[in-house]
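Annex B, item 7. Sequence and structure tokens for protein A, then protein B.
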Amino acid sequence: MNSIVIDGRVVRDAEYKEVGANGTPLLEFTLANDTGYGEYKKTHFFKCKVWGKRATGLASHIVKGKPLTVRGEMQMQQWQGDDGKNRYSWDINIGELNFHMKDSTSGPSQQTYPAGDTQRDTPISKPPAFPSPGQQFDDDIPF
């Protein structure tokens, strides 16, 4: 299994293009992720890709500074540089993308969108809220 989840901020506005003979939509952006704190703080940069028709719809929403959480699959790209040496980069093919939004009445929240070329055209709904005090949990486990 190859899965990675990164939380960070978009470095610059996403770049939309169509690639290949069929003109497959591709949206590329870089996500900055901080680890550590103080003098030990480091920033890591991840090249992210969204393929298919989702790339078209998300292009205008992925802008510089936007906080996101992405979930996807790591893929290594290898090529030969002008100096003849092999070069490598790690890209994330995004499967799911979470926008972090702040609502003045309810505090921070997230909106989740599938990011692959899927049949779904609507956002994934938020999970149901936990019962309020005094309500009963449904103890049936669904698996």
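Protein B:
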Amino acid sequence: MVDYHKAIRALHPEVVKVEETNDSITAYDVNDNVVSWDKSLADNWVDPEAYKYKRAAEYPPLSEQLDYIYHNGVEAWKTNMIQPVKDKYPKPTE
């Protein structure tokens, strides 16, 4: 699902405000002028930080991670709990 507010701001740096009603989204610049934006460009925009949200959702709760570190050590935690998630959702290349 596209976060249109984030996509519009990323594609149009002059946008300072985005308002959404039931049937439309309007973007405005600093002078409150309407900024036109292309829905198809926004639909195809890829959030460069999406990997962070996917990783956060997949990591075990912090209490489980700490318990794992206590019983298995930091290196085992990095190798067995953290690295597989990082491998599954790598940072995008620039």
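Comment on protein B: DSSP finds five helices and three strands in the chain.
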